[in-house]
Write a structure and sequence with these properties.
about 600 residues; alpha+beta; 6-stranded mixed β-sheet; 4-stranded antiparallel β-sheet
Length: about 600
Amino acid sequence: MALDSPKLSKVLQDIASGKMQLPDFQREWKWNDTAIRELIATVTLDYPLGVVMTLETGGNSPFRPRTLTGSQAADTTVPDLLLLDGQQRLTSLFQALYLDQPVLTTDDRRKPLKRWYYVDIAKALGSAADRDAAIVSVPEDRVLRSDFGRRADLDLSTPELEWRQGYFPLHAVFDAERISKWQQGFVKHDDDNWPVWARFQELVLKNVQSFLIPMIKLEAGTPNDAVCSVFERVNTGGVPLDVFELLTATFAGDRAYEREHGDYYRLPDVWDQIVQDLSTAHPVFGRAGNGGGAGITSSDFLQAVALVLTWERKRQGRTAAVSCKRRDLLELPLDDFVRLGPQVAAAFRWVGEFLYKQCIVRPDDLPYRTQLVPLAAVRTVLGAAAEKPRAFDRLTRWYWCGVLGEKYSGSTESRFTRDLEQLLEWVPEESVGAPVPDTITEAVFVADRLDTLTTRNSAAYKGIYALLVKQGAVDWYYNAEPLNPGLMLQYAVWVRQIFPKGWFARHAPEDRRAGSIVNKTPLSYRASRGMTGSPAAYLKTLAAESGIRSEWFDDVVATHLIDPQHLHEGDFERFYADRSRQLLELVNTAMGKRSVHRDASDR
């Protein structure tokens, strides 16, 4: 790392020529007119501007570069420097002070503007505290109007008008020939302007022409994860940079790929197609155009690729550990991503089918998005072997232990790697004597957790909801067949309270068990419309609406692991105790292990 202080004029020349460019992960320039005027005022006073940060390329940019807004450098120009921090400031100065065209900016309400920038010479020679007022911007036609455009307050549309009113065009500040011509016209207009010009040149123009830009230069070859970390630290006022954006720029900058295929690799386009395919096949992955919704993100996908790649390398003795940390993602070679990407995408499609079989069909129903990462990685490695009966059953048990044991609620990267390696050893049909994965052995469901599962924020809450559907719950209105993933979407199935809020308001207003998953079950919106008052009353109404005999309707109620007699009696205590017992058995079956009961003294 080196510290330099080039002149502003040299930096702007490098921007124009393409010697300084942006890495493609940088977002677009967006400063408004007020910010630009304040920035110019700072430069004319020779006040500190703040350090900018660049990365030396050594003639081989690690990221796909692009020119700063306004630069007309050829696309083939290889930059010497990539600007990591300072884009807004340098782009603003480049457009306002260097280009012979109006600046494309916005007002404070983000309305598009085209502005030329001038300095009012008389005001600039006054107090430094008033310098902001000396910097003026005018529209593209150089006439500043008021009263809805009916009155011209400042007309600078010709050089003569500029001389007469004493407004110097700042886009000429680095053009010696234009400055000389403007000076001649200014003093010719009025001989008294000679001393004014001398002071203006000394106090304003020289400040701009000699202005230095403090610049940190990172050496060529700085690792991508270090570049990413540095960018995030210096870019505290901007939008955080994510790994996907940086990897997009890295892949796009792969010259070998571009030479072979005639175009650069467009990671966003590839990702959009993956999301489109996944979301079309499986609603649990969210809607296309929404970043994958809550079901999958670009980081999830990249982590799955990194897990598979580092697993392969470990098997080959090329790395010591399986990993999917940020550094692993940023160091993904394009060739390996092109090779593994389609395999991982296919694995996520299989994950969608797996979730469908677990009756998890909407993004909001998904207990843990992160748990899909190792599952997809395992499917990528095992291929069709993951669908063999014993393998599938073991993956299903692992999945529900993760959900009901709430093992993916904290830091997940270390669990990703353990799960991948342990599952690959334990799951295959031919596996004999392999240890049970930690996620299964560590998973515990404490019986009284049922009392506190009250919202969809909990993975276990969503898990029990899905398991109720999976084990054969029948809707209380559309009762021709058990609920399934398709019917859940068709009938707007959601969790509904069995003893309704109105019942609790009258009988047990302080009972917190009202919102427990024990007192909820998956039912259609149509069924829920009749669930008012005591279950002893509304069950009769629902039975009549269903068109079946009441005793048969009791069988429908029982498919929700509910003793209908307790509802007919309106006995919440007996209902709650019995359903808690049945839900615990459901949990035990899914996890393949018994729940834990706390002693009364521990509660």
